[in-house]
Amino acid sequence: MKNESQKSKTVAIGLSGGVDSSVAAWVLKQQGYDVFGIFMINWHDTAGLLEGDCPAEHDLIIAQLVARHLNIPLHVVDFSEQYKKRVVDYMFEGYRRGLTPNPDILCNREIKFDLFIAKAHELGADYIATGHYCRKEIIEVNGKPVYRLLSGVDKNKDQSYFLCQLSQEQLSQTLFPIGELTKTKVREIARKLNLPTADRKDSQGICFVGKVDLPVFLQQKLKPKEGKIIEIAKNFPYPSLPTFSSEAKVNNENNEENLKLWSMAFTYHPENGTMIGLHNGAHFYTIGQRKGLNIGGKTEPLFVLSTDTKENIVYVGQGQNHPGLYRQGLLIKIEDVHWLRPDLKMKEDETRSLLVRIRYRQPLQTAHLFMRKNGLYIIFDKMQRGITPGQFAAWYDHEELIGSGPISNEMS
Fold first, then answer.
1. Which of 216, 245, 264 lies at the terminal end of a domain, its last residue?
2. Together in a domain, 376 and 272
3. Which residues have C-beta within 8 Å of that of residue 378, sequence separation ≥ 6?
4. What is the mean predicted confidence (pLDDT) over 340-363?
5. Which residue range is the domain that position 313 belongs to?
6. For 219-231, how does the pLDDT look when each residue is reduced to its tens digit (9 = 90+)?
7. What is the pTM of this model?
């Protein structure tokens, strides 16, 4: 393993006004780097923001206090126009199509590790750094450096998933100073240093936008449209699927037809259930959602099983164990498959056993990956709850994240 030498190196740290980036800046100084901060303004509109959420102006004040406390310069840059085009418009379009995009992953790929890197270099930085809980390791493959993205030491705070769309080029220019620390330790350091962020709550909601009332936020572009809520009974006669064998490499039953059956979401029709209420737009709902349906009187809570944005119908079922919430696998279309480690890229018809997560903080799940001409099929050893089109699946080899891609919305 190799490490970058910090001798006479300058690092631009993204200061957000949070405790993680604050401590990351201090760690860099302790390691001997010349450090300066960059505060990004990516959003100005307050539509849909929940009351009590801190606006960017307050975050900037805190970031300025941190920079002064650590005696580092702070630059303020405004990427709001690019953020709207590359992240928010993508999110609006995804919801319009019935997907559930992850703006945090797009923000990292398009803003923090693209525009931010360019601005940092313009200001004289050799590297950028962030307060993500993950680690980077450099190895040599065929005489060339290869950058590994590893999960953070604090497994409860590991944020490697949010960086699943990064490239080797982006990783080569990035440092993760607190990846070896736990959140508890970060708080402890911040308190000892009397940093103004020491006891500040972690940010929530959409990256650089804040905690939002999602339907209100989406109504900036997506208009409310009344439609039916249809309940699907637990005993609905789902088609019988072949049993998946974890002995995928040698079992001929894991063929193309079965891969499609395991990975496709089920398509409901109005006649499959009973209308129990009305909603204000199918594009405002996502699979597994519980809140926001505003229907009472049921034995168990209602969960969204599926949305049909063309017909404007939301299908729901009672109970968090409703069979409609579970699937064996998923498909990532070939053009959407991304490899952080191109040297580990799977070849067509290759099968691998890896670990996969389909949402942040989900424990890693054992799965078999099948590379086919049309895309990558991920078939889990155990049925998965809430596989949601538009969200990213990320696959790991032990603690290293090696690839990712958005889940396809192909239906049966």
1. 216
2. yes
3. 263, 329, 330, 331, 332, 356, 367, 368, 369, 370, 393, 395
4. 96
5. 223-406
6. 777 889 999 999 9
7. 0.91
